[in-house]
Design goal:
The complex is a heterotrimer of chains A (458), B (268) and C (304).
Chain A (H helix, E strand, L loop, with lengths): L1 H23 L12 E7 L3 H17 L3 E7 L3 H11 L8 E5 L3 H6 L3 E2 L1 H8 L3 H4 L2 H6 L1 E2 L2 E2 L2 E6 L1 E6 H6 L11 H11 L1 E2 L5 E10 L1 H10 L5 E2 L10 E2 L4 H15 L3 E6 L2 H12 L3 E7 L3 H11 L5 E5 L13 E8 L4 H14 L2 H11 L12 H9 L2 H10 L5 H4 L6 H16 L6 H23 L1
Parallel strand pairs in A: 1-2, 1-3, 10-13, 10-14
Antiparallel strand pairs in A: 3-16, 4-16, 5-6, 7-16, 8-14, 8-15, 9-10, 11-12
Helix pairs in contact in A: 2-15, 9-11, 10-11, 12-13, 15-16, 19-20
Chain B lengths: L1 H27 L20 H8 L3 H32 L5 H11 L8 H10 L6 H5 L6 H12 L3 H9 L4 H12 L1 H17 L2 H6 L8 H11 L4 H21 L1 H12 L3
Chain C lengths: L9 H32 L2 E3 L6 E4 L3 H6 L10 H30 L7 H9 L6 H11 L8 H6 L14 H26 L3 H9 L4 H29 L3 H6 L12 H11 L3 H25 L7
Antiparallel strand pairs in C: 1-2
Helix pairs in contact in C: 1-12, 3-7, 3-9, 7-9, 9-12, 11-12
The chains are: A alpha/beta (458), B mainly alpha (268), C mainly alpha (304).
């Protein structure tokens, strides 16, 4: 018996190594050339978009032989910054890391960062004038550009053109007020004979990012003073009447049976929202424009006739503000040899060059932070093929500059988001009677956590 | 009649127990779809998904290998370390013995989860992240193992030891060629527990692995799920792939497993 | 406790230390020193960049856990400990009953019973992480498997895992399944260890199936039941994997924020190392109490 186990285990091992060996061939990236300097790069995009990041790295490695970038994928943006934070313990940091927008202040506070501003200044580069102004201003804190924007996005409202046409709604309308969205959702909601809803007007997750955007559309601040742009933020002020207005709108949609809430954003809940939209169970939803390509292909695959349209994110009637960019940027750490540092910067420059930006944006749906990318044929073709992108770009370009649309920076943003999302949930599920009370609780907690954080970093 | 009823019950219970596995197989074979059904269309089963899994995640094979390496190493290490520590506790009489007895007993009272932060810091400072030693070394000693083996060693008559010493048998040889062979059931129990516990570990590998190459199957499969969150067939096929080795071992060594798990757990 | 009646000797001490050295070193490095370090860190605000204590905080973090004094955090952590207990309460009795039912069923003498027994042990071979991936999909609204439960309970949420009233029970159900194989094996062995003659004399006395089960099987199985209850309770209290894999947050209205997950969150996501250390020490204390209860009850069941 024992012998048999041994033999079979040996066979199993052989089979395993054979399978892994065989499988590694097709996806093999460029091998490290002898004598080259290795640069480690962590990224948090996954799935289809993650494969495009890997291709950018492959292109870089194939383009020259002095440096070799090892792309290390992390499960998501959250995991990437968590791993980076905890890696400070052993000091083994990647040379370059892709970090999401809200990690900005935390990254600066690690004191392990080389601001790309110093590298740009050293080489007297003019790249900053090519950067999308809204994007450049997001990553510039007190006059210093800390990281190189790589993939930028902004939220939009997605809708199913087929459904809108079916109930006689305008599919070309770009700016929707809360009341207009609600009225549309009401008309779009369908029930079967038994009274069960077969199509909701609006499907959404409880996502703090959208609340942040809604504050920006109304020209209000998230953090005090000045969204942390000039001096370190001391207090969180998202518990304003403007913020409560958005929560009230969402709750009204759910209470009136025209909207479905898929729970707090992330993982399986976001997947449920996405599949709800592409299968026609919810006619409108809110998400990043970066989700466009996935929606179009999944809707085609689902075969329920969903035709993906895009509008600006809804706002209260008469709101004068705009949107904050989202997405992620590339950070260079101060670890490693001089060659590794040089290689890191070389790779970051490559990744932000017009050609690569056009390649990345046309394949994913993120904005190219480098506006020179719009002159590349690949990008021009993508805008013709997916005119929905243009709507998102226009939304960004119509945004007035200022602290509200520049977005907030502070060290405990990740936690504040989770506090806000819990508060939204408590309000939507009726645990807390008013939106204001829910947001007040989250703001109080987040402010006290920020205070504790600020005390340790100074 | 009564027999028919019994079989119906047995089959129903089996379907209930196997439901998650049958379910994952069913979803795997349905191709990429956003609204899978409970049962696949038998006319168009997509077996190719098991190849796609390895194409989508070239590290899948490596993850299984990592899990085997780590689990076998921890299992072997626990057997050796526990046997060595249990030996003097069971056979020798030395000053300070009660102290050491309680020293080992105390380790049973500290849950791994409450020392995880300093342990993470230790491993990070040693630069043992992304390595086999980081996954293995912290688990090489087991309080459970020491007491299990001590118990087993103590059931052997002390005359055996005295006789062996008179015969001129060295201490280590006595452990190796007499105590251990006679304690095979306890060793098997410890081996099975150590292997299963290590194989199932999730928390620790989640912390100390940055590079996907070093993931174990548990961390790997959950990362694979978040990468392929919308591809239900790939998620399920990947899960079946990483479950296959242990299910295979279970059906192979079911008898040994059962006797191993029970002889250790139910003493006295 | 002493096994061999020889006098204590200094020479034996040296030899013993040599044999025990690997275990002593490993436990010192990976159990005792870390425990002391965690205790130490729990009294400080810890620098996020250097991991060194930055500012003495006294018992502040402990006060926060037990919601003493004024903090904006409220009773989140106290409730989290409660959630862990609720989870154990939902899981353990169901686990025991399910395993007992399967084991009784597997005792019948029919052909192919061995095959059925093997099937019943399957979940031993399936890790909680893999099971979590599968069960997350079983509960997904895209797969209509559990939609009828939502309708039955008139729940408006999109899935069992996104509703505050059903998320924890759903996880408990999944956990019962993952533990079923192991519990079944132990339970079956327990039943099989009951001497045949007892049943035979019972039959002579005219006892029927239920009566023999009630008066012979159950009482004689009590050590096994106790053993399973204790280890299941402890493992429920330390459960983390299924919460991370299937929920990956504090859950709907924080209804699945079990204590170990809360520690992970504070440690890994919020990088509040001092606070997370304090929570670790509280976890240790809670488990110490559970272990004491175990020690009281189970002298005849486990480790001597």
């Amino acid at each position: 018996m024992n012998k048999r186990i041994g033999l079979l285990s040996a066979c199993l091992f052989a089979a395993l190594t054979a399978v892994s060996g065989f499988a590694q061939v097709p996806a093999a990236p460029v091998a490290q050339p002898a004598g080259s300097t290795k640069v480690t790069f962590w990224f948090g995009l996954t799935g289809y978009n993650g494969e495009i990041v890997q291709q950018v790295v492959n292109k870089y490695n194939a383009s020259q032989s002095k440096y070799w970038v090892e792309a290390v994928s992390q499960p998501d943006y959250d995991a990437t910054i968590n791993k980076l934070n905890t890696s400070l313990a052993g000091g083994e940091l990647p040379n370059v890391v892709q970090i999401y927008d809200i990690g900005t202040q935390r990254m600066i506070d690690t004191k392990k960062i080389v601001p790309v501003q110093t590298l740009i200044d050293r080489e007297k580069l003019t790249i900053k004038k090519d950067l999308e102004p809204a994007v450049a201003s997001y990553y510039t804190i007190a006059g210093t550009l800390y990281s190189m924007p790589f993939n930028s996005s902004a939220p939009v409202m997605f809708f199913d053109k087929t459904a809108l046409r079916e109930v006689g709604l305008d599919t070309y309308k770009r700016v929707w007020s809360y009341d207009e969205v609600f009225a549309a959702a009401k008309r779009l909601t369908k029930k079967d004979a038994s009274g069960k809803v077969t199509r909701y007007g609006l499907g959404f997750t409880l996502y703090s990012w959208i609340l942040e955007e809604e504050l920006a559309t109304q020209g209000t601040l998230f953090a005090d003073p000045n969204n942390g742009r000039e001096k370190r933020a001391q207090k969180l002020v998202f518990n304003s009447a403007e913020g409560a207005k958005w929560l009230d709108f969402l709750k009204k949609c759910v209470d009136e049976g025209v909207g479905i809430c898929y729970g707090i954003d992330g993982g399986a809940n976001s997947a449920a929202r996405d599949s709800g939209f592409v299968t026609g169970n919810a006619a409108m939803t809110l998400n990043s424009i970066a989700g466009l390509r996935g929606y179009i292909s999944n809707a085609a695959q689902a075969g329920k006739g969903v035709d993906v349209g895009v509008a600006y994110i809804p706002r209260p009637a008469g709101a004068k503000g705009g949107v904050i960019i989202g997405g992620a940027s590339l950070w260079i750490t101060n670890t490693g040899s001089a060659e590794e540092q040089a290689g890191s910067w070389d790779f970051v420059k490559f990744a932000s060059s017009p050609d690569i930006q056009a390649f990345f944006s046309s394949n994913t749906g993120y904005y190219p932070p480098n506006t020179a990318a719009y002159n590349v044929q690949l990008m021009k073709d993508a805008l013709v093929k997916f005119p929905q992108f243009q709507i998102a770009i226009d939304q960004l370009h119509q945004t007035p500059a200022g602290y509200p649309s520049q977005g907030a920076v502070f060290g405990t943003f990740v936690k504040a988001r989770s506090n806000i999302q819990s508060a939204m949930e408590q309000f939507i599920t009726g645990k807390v009677p008013t939106a204001k009370a829910a947001l007040d609780g989250a703001a109080k907690q987040s402010s006290s956590e920020l205070e504790e954080y600020n005390a340790t970093v100074q | 009649m009564k027999k028919a009823m019994l079989y119906t019950l047995l089959v129903l219970a089996s379907v209930g127990v196997l439901f998650p596995i049958l379910f994952s197989l069913s979803i795997s074979l349905q191709g990429e779809t956003v609204s899978p059904r409970l049962l696949p269309d038998l006319k168009s089963l997509d077996w190719g998904v098991f190849v796609s899994v390895f194409r989508k995640e070239p590290n899948m094979g490596r993850w299984i290998l990592n899990s085997f390496v780590v689990s076998i190493a921890v299992m072997t290490g626990q057997l050796v370390v526990s046997a060595l520590a249990a030996y003097p506790l069971a056979t020798l009489n030395f000053p300070g013995k009660p102290f050491f007895f309680f020293f080992f007993l105390a380790t049973l009272l500290v849950p791994w989860e409450s020392t995880v932060i300093p342990n993470y810091l230790t491993i990070a400072t040693l630069h043992w992240k992304d390595s086999y030693q980081g996954l293995i070394v912290p688990f090489l000693a087991s309080g459970f193992g020491i007491f299990l083996l001590r118990q087993s060693f103590m059931t052997l008559p002390k005359e055996l030891y005295e006789a062996a010493v008179i015969e001129g048998c060295g201490r280590t040889r006595y452990l190796w060629s007499i105590l251990l062979p006679l304690s095979r059931p306890a060793l098997a129990t410890l081996a099975i527990y150590a292997f299963l516990n290590t194989w199932n570990q999730y928390y620790w590998p989640l912390l100390v692995v940055d590079n996907p190459v070093w993931r174990t199957t548990q961390v790997g499969i959950t990362a694979f799920r978040s990468t392929e969150i919308a591809s239900y067939n790939l998620q399920m096929a990947g899960t079946l792939v990483v479950m296959a080795p242990t299910i295979f071992l279970l059906f192979l060594g079911q008898k040994q497993l059962v006797s191993g798990l029970t002889s250790g757990a139910l003493k006295g | 406790m002493t096994s061999i009646g020889k006098p204590r000797s200094r020479k034996d001490l040296g030899v013993s230390l040599l044999y025990m050295a690997p275990a002593i070193i490993l436990f010192t490095l990976f159990t005792f020193l870390p425990f002391i370090r965690a205790t130490f860190l729990s009294f400080f605000i810890v620098d996020r960049n250097t991991f060194a204590p930055a500012k003495f905080f006294g018992l502040g973090y402990y006060a926060r856990i037990f919601n003493l004094g004024s903090t904006a955090l409220g009773d989140e952590y106290l409730r989290s400990i409660g959630t862990s207990f609720s989870f154990a309460l939902m899981t353990v009795p169901a686990s025991i009953v399910a395993a007992l039912a399967l084991a009784v069923l597997a005792c019948v003498k029919v052909k192919y019973i061995e095959t059925f027994r093997t099937i019943f042990t399957t979940s031993v071979a399936i890790s909680i992480a893999s099971a979590g991936v599968i069960w997350a999909l079983i509960f997904s609204p895209d797969v209509k498997v559990t939609a009828w439960i939502l309708e039955l309970l008139r729940i408006r949420s999109s899935s069992l895992l996104t509703d505050a009233s059903t998320a924890l029970p759903a996880l408990a159900f999944m956990t019962v399944w993952t533990g079923l194989g192991f519990n079944f094996i132990i339970m079956l062995a327990g039943i099989q260890a009951i001497p045949r003659e007892l049943y035979e004399s019972g039959r002579i006395d005219g006892a029927n199936g239920w009566k023999t089960f009630r008066h012979i099987t159950l009482p004689l199985l009590s050590p096994t039941l106790l053993f399973l209850t204790i280890i299941s309770t402890i493992s429920c209290f330390l459960a983390f994997t299924q919460f991370k894999v299937m929920i990956d947050s504090v859950g709907p209205n924080k209804s699945t924020e079990v204590f170990v997950y809360a520690i992970f969150n504070t440690f890994w996501m919020e990088n509040n190392y001092g606070f997370a250390s304090a929570m670790s020490i509280v976890l240790f204390a809670v488990l110490l109490v559970l272990s004491m209860l175990q020690f009281r009850f189970d002298k005849k069941v486990h480790y001597q």
